């Protein structure tokens, strides 16, 4: 179906077995707005978008749609989103689709916008496997992809969105069996019917499932009808349904154990009211993923608040709070005693504690305020903290916590540190009759460094210095800003040396301390001064003394490596500060072509190819036998194929131009009157094939042969030579149209009773032998009474596929004319052929 500049709406449609040579095997949209609901795309094929392709400003909305077993030779096995398009999938199932290039499931292109919600992308494949890229490929140049609440095989999270998973969706278990009869195709209805007489299915029960006629192949087709012993599908698949062949039936409904039941979003765009089978889309509070809504519910079936709704639904729809996330409304937790509510605010105590709105310092599961209000805990200091949560100190061993002693006035605490003064040290270093800590607390003595010792005592004891004789410890002069301390060594700057080697007006120690100057060798002299004075060498001119640089000499040339690099003696193409020759010698870099340049550098700068991105130069892959190069163009065959430089029609990994095209079958075809054309299959081989059905016995010789080729043939030529007829000559016309069937025509029919050899050149190479013997209908290579009797026994028969060989004159009926033709040739035989 092709939609151009239109706005179609598709509902309950099935697109199966369609093929497009351009885009969109099932549906192709060009500058159109398309809505598809409850549609199925199966077994369709196109270069891009095996099922559906959106192109150029198209907008497509797919709801409850299934994309199964579609194929793209390039990209987008199920769906391709083309240039500047907007595509939306909601509750879709995209499974077992295949692409040879990108996106076995879905592929986006330049400037496209794709949203996928509540959908399943599983089992879609590329030649490289079935990872996340095989399910959904984002081209990356201006395209936008939004994936929410989806089940996507190989999910990494790189596509963003929320609520998605890579867990197996666990579809209903596959059914299997064996066909008991060959399948039949009905061309009028476009359907194929398969038979398993031992099945015992319920009529119509398999409708909507997908059949793999051969368990050994990936082809699947949608089941449109079934009886107890037959299955009918769309399309001509009769060639896949032989008697005795095993089959499988896939059902993409979700099993009871599926992790994606109730895992979708009720707020997905365009969420339908029903699934593709007409069931309510939201059965158990939350939508499922995929086209089918499961009948399996959640394990909770309670209504604790008697509002005629499952408790889990109350919680899901936020009609009842569930702060502890146990899927039970809070009011029920409180009512049945599972949760406490000591302050009667309808919020379980454990939730208030967890949220921090109530404290529980004693971890008894009851808010502290309730403990205090009920008298379960005391609070001697009225700080709203239970006493049993206060530090358990009783330094004076009077049986009462220190904090209560202080609060109740039984003990003094001059420095307000919640330690009774009688428990503090009794030092009085300045002998003023007052405890030092109380001196400091009262402000009668200073303690600028907060060490609980009066400053005068620190200075007298030598535990603090006063280099600038201010009467205050140096560390305090620094701390309060009275003195600077540029190098943070607690020594006032005015007490430090005042050298200024770089004459910038700042002492060197301050330059070094504040980072204005570096001092890598920690000699308290700026590096620039070390270099300028000649105290330090600086071979690379970076104003870093050489003694501070790495001093390795990996190439043993007597110069530090960094000097080799600075002077150009050695190169460092990868910028790791190691000479390239050392990288290679020590095994840090490969040099597979032994040209003294790390392979990674050749790859990065483009001087060496790495078309397969494996980190090894193509020439080395080829030389080591890790890659083949059958056309000797210096590029691995796999890359020639991947880039399109070489074709690989049969996908065997060998460029077509490196393979010989073989002939597989040949026919001699003749028209038998109004009954149509019948062909003798001549086979491929030598004279040993000239027996039975492989011999042309009709009158008139052979003037045209048709052959099956192993690969498409673009052009060839042929010459003919007959073994026993030296006078025979004929012009030969070779016919090829780029397909798998070629033909050879002779202006003079092949001589009767002779063995002839066709010699091919061009795309086809080699020889093919064929022979004719008019009248030898039984294929015994001699015309005699046996042939005559065989025709006579069939007098009056109308030609069909079983008896056409006995109609020698090709008039459509077997009669005395044919018998006479045999009798006239009695004794003719096929001579020995080379």
Give a topology summary.
Elements: E1 2-4, E2 9-11, E3 14-16, E4 27-30, E5 33-37, E6 40-42, E7 45-48, E8 52-55, E9 59-63, E10 66-68, E11 71-75, E12 79-81, E13 86-90, E14 93-95, E15 98-99, E16 106-108, E17 113-117, E18 120-122, H1 132-135, E19 136-137, E20 144-148, E21 151-152, E22 171-178, E23 181-186, E24 191-195, E25 210-212, E26 221-226, E27 230-234, E28 246-254, H2 311-316, H3 330-335, H4 349-355, H5 368-374, H6 402-407, H7 436-442, H8 455-461, H9 474-479, H10 508-513, H11 527-533, H12 561-567, H13 580-585, H14 599-605, H15 618-623, H16 637-643, E29 663-671, E30 677-681, E31 704-709, E32 716-722, E33 732-735, E34 741-746, E35 754-762, E36 766-772, H17 785-792, H18 816-823
Helix pairs in contact: 17-18
Question: How is this structure best described in words?
Answer:
The protein is α/β, with parallel strands linked by helices and 834 residues long. 14% of the residues lie in helices and 20% in strands. Strand 25 (210-212) and strand 26 form a beta hairpin. Helix 17 packs antiparallel against helix 18. The protein is elongated. The two termini are 57 Å apart.
User: How many beta-strand elements?
Assistant: 36
Q: How is the main sheet built?
A: 7 strands, antiparallel
- First-last Cα distance: 57 Å
Q: What is the helical fraction, as a range of percent?
A: 10-25%
- Please state the overall shape, judged from the principal axes of the Cα atoms: elongated
Output the radius of gyration: 46 Å
Helix/strand-derived class?
alpha/beta
Number of DSSP helical runs? 18
Contiguous uncertain segments of 5+ residues: none
Strand fraction equals: 15-25%
Q: Biggest sheet: strands side by side, in what order?
A: 22-28-25-26-27-24-23
* Rounded average pLDDT: 83
